[in-house]
Amino acid sequence: MTTSVPFSVYQWMRANRAEVASWAVWENPPEVLDPDSQLTTAGVGEVGFFETPTEDDYLAGVGQALQRDIVLVGLNPAGRQDKTGRVVRDVRTFGCFHDTSSVTKDHRLRAVAYHWGLWGGFIVDLDTITVETSSKVAEEKLKSDAKHRDICAQLLDETLGHLEPPRHATVVFLGGSVGDLVEKKQEFRTVFEKYFDSPGVTIWHYSHRDGLNARICNATKVLGSRQDPSGLWVPGRTDRP
Q: What domain of life (predicted)?
């Protein structure tokens, strides 16, 4: 089974999950991780490369990067406040996890994905319904509301069913809250056991307050040594595949 993502799968995700899921591909990933320097947010909010009208466009572009054997799991889509103060979702195609906000800190996830072999992976949340600026709201709802939890698990099951990841896929939980919910709540545990042979591993959530050096240590401890990213497809880059 190939681990690349067929255009038909990509099309289904774009038609049905474009506002609540995404892929671990960004513009301008950091080539060097220097604990004494600040990670740039430049390019992290760009999503235009996800617009691929034809299969040829897809295969010549982002389709070169996407993989089904890497699945990153968050808690819920981060909301943003509009001009009226309402919390709204990001309606851009695969805009989740591609935000320049200093609160979401998606540029940190970009750095880890690029240097630790997660580039091109599929990213989805346990709860794709609750759009909030604070993940604590979604976490408490998943813990206390069994009906809501069941609906979220059904949606996740449908999503993974269309992704068709191999059973040996790498599953990474983005933060301890996600890993705890999968371990302790039968609805989610059943879904992950259905699709994957091994339980997922947990890395710090990218909004974790500690600096880059501590983040490097955490990623190395959980994911192993850094990998050479030189052959990865990166949008906007012309000096490599």
A: Bacteria
